[in-house]
Amino acid sequence: MGVAGAVWAAFEAWGRGGVIAVNVPDRACRGRSVTAARIGGGGAGRLRDWCEAEAGVTLGIGLGMAEPGSAAYDDFLRVAHMGHVNAHMTLGVLAVMEAGMRALAIPHGPGALDAAAAALTRG
Prior knowledge:
Blueprint: H1 2-15, E1 20-22, E2 34-39, H2 43-55, E3 60-61, E4 76-80, H3 87-103, H4 112-122
Antiparallel strand pairs: 1-2, 2-4, 3-4
Protein backbone atom coordinates (compact mmCIF):
# COMPACT_ATOMS: atom_id res chain seq x y z
CA MET A 1 0.00 0.00 0.00
CA GLY A 2 3.00 2.31 0.33
CA VAL A 3 2.48 5.82 1.65
CA ALA A 4 -1.32 5.59 1.40
CA GLY A 5 -1.22 2.62 3.77
CA ALA A 6 1.01 4.57 6.14
CA VAL A 7 -1.47 7.45 6.27
CA TRP A 8 -4.37 5.05 6.81
CA ALA A 9 -2.53 3.24 9.60
CA ALA A 10 -1.85 6.54 11.37
CA PHE A 11 -5.48 7.66 11.15
CA GLU A 12 -6.68 4.29 12.39
CA ALA A 13 -4.40 4.55 15.44
CA TRP A 14 -5.41 8.15 16.14
CA GLY A 15 -9.06 7.14 15.86
CA ARG A 16 -8.80 4.64 18.70
CA GLY A 17 -8.57 7.47 21.20
CA GLY A 18 -10.57 10.38 19.91
CA VAL A 19 -12.99 11.81 17.39
CA ILE A 20 -10.82 11.02 14.36
CA ALA A 21 -11.82 8.78 11.46
CA VAL A 22 -11.19 8.42 7.75
CA ASN A 23 -14.26 9.19 5.64
CA VAL A 24 -14.18 5.83 3.86
CA PRO A 25 -14.03 3.03 6.44
CA ASP A 26 -13.43 0.18 3.96
CA ARG A 27 -9.77 0.18 2.87
CA ALA A 28 -10.68 -1.51 -0.42
CA CYS A 29 -12.81 1.49 -1.38
CA ARG A 30 -10.32 4.23 -0.47
CA GLY A 31 -8.47 6.30 -3.02
CA ARG A 32 -4.73 5.79 -3.28
CA SER A 33 -3.99 9.48 -3.91
CA VAL A 34 -5.58 11.30 -0.99
CA THR A 35 -7.13 10.47 2.38
CA ALA A 36 -10.14 12.44 3.55
CA ALA A 37 -10.76 12.41 7.28
CA ARG A 38 -12.86 13.92 10.02
CA ILE A 39 -11.73 15.34 13.34
CA GLY A 40 -14.88 16.33 15.18
CA GLY A 41 -15.51 19.47 17.15
CA GLY A 42 -13.74 21.69 14.65
CA GLY A 43 -10.48 19.86 15.29
CA ALA A 44 -9.54 19.54 11.63
CA GLY A 45 -9.68 23.29 11.08
CA ARG A 46 -7.65 23.99 14.20
CA LEU A 47 -5.12 21.35 13.20
CA ARG A 48 -4.85 22.70 9.64
CA ASP A 49 -4.18 26.18 11.01
CA TRP A 50 -1.59 24.96 13.54
CA CYS A 51 0.29 22.80 11.02
CA GLU A 52 0.57 25.68 8.56
CA ALA A 53 1.52 28.34 11.12
CA GLU A 54 3.92 26.28 13.23
CA ALA A 55 5.48 23.89 10.71
CA GLY A 56 4.75 25.17 7.21
CA VAL A 57 2.68 22.05 6.43
CA THR A 58 -0.52 22.59 4.47
CA LEU A 59 -3.32 20.08 4.96
CA GLY A 60 -6.20 20.12 2.51
CA ILE A 61 -9.72 21.22 3.28
CA GLY A 62 -12.54 18.69 3.12
CA LEU A 63 -13.77 19.34 -0.40
CA GLY A 64 -17.50 18.82 -0.65
CA MET A 65 -17.83 17.54 2.90
CA ALA A 66 -19.44 20.70 4.30
CA GLU A 67 -20.22 24.19 3.10
CA PRO A 68 -17.61 26.87 3.88
CA GLY A 69 -18.77 28.84 6.89
CA SER A 70 -20.91 25.99 8.26
CA ALA A 71 -20.29 24.54 11.71
CA ALA A 72 -19.07 21.25 10.19
CA TYR A 73 -16.61 22.86 7.75
CA ASP A 74 -13.75 22.70 10.25
CA ASP A 75 -14.36 19.01 10.97
CA PHE A 76 -12.77 17.77 7.72
CA LEU A 77 -9.32 17.65 6.15
CA ARG A 78 -7.37 15.84 3.44
CA VAL A 79 -3.87 14.43 3.40
CA ALA A 80 -2.37 13.92 -0.06
CA HIS A 81 -0.10 11.02 -0.94
CA MET A 82 0.15 11.38 -4.70
CA GLY A 83 2.72 12.58 -7.18
CA HIS A 84 6.25 13.18 -5.95
CA VAL A 85 5.59 12.15 -2.36
CA ASN A 86 7.79 9.64 -0.60
CA ALA A 87 8.08 7.92 2.76
CA HIS A 88 10.08 10.60 4.55
CA MET A 89 7.71 13.36 3.39
CA THR A 90 4.69 11.37 4.51
CA LEU A 91 6.17 10.45 7.89
CA GLY A 92 7.10 14.11 8.37
CA VAL A 93 3.54 15.26 7.71
CA LEU A 94 2.14 12.64 10.09
CA ALA A 95 4.63 13.68 12.80
CA VAL A 96 3.68 17.34 12.39
CA MET A 97 0.00 16.40 12.60
CA GLU A 98 0.60 14.47 15.82
CA ALA A 99 2.57 17.36 17.30
CA GLY A 100 -0.33 19.65 16.42
CA MET A 101 -2.87 17.32 18.04
CA ARG A 102 -0.78 17.32 21.20
CA ALA A 103 -0.36 21.10 21.18
CA LEU A 104 -4.09 21.63 20.62
CA ALA A 105 -5.17 18.89 23.07
CA ILE A 106 -7.11 17.07 20.34
CA PRO A 107 -7.93 13.61 21.72
CA HIS A 108 -6.22 10.87 19.71
CA GLY A 109 -5.01 7.33 20.15
CA PRO A 110 -1.32 6.46 20.56
CA GLY A 111 1.01 4.66 18.21
CA ALA A 112 0.17 6.37 14.92
CA LEU A 113 3.74 7.00 13.86
CA ASP A 114 4.79 3.45 14.74
CA ALA A 115 1.81 2.11 12.80
CA ALA A 116 2.70 4.27 9.78
CA ALA A 117 6.32 3.09 9.83
CA ALA A 118 5.22 -0.53 10.11
CA ALA A 119 2.84 -0.07 7.16
CA LEU A 120 5.74 1.20 5.06
CA THR A 121 7.77 -1.91 5.78
CA ARG A 122 4.91 -4.08 4.51
CA GLY A 123 4.91 -2.21 1.20
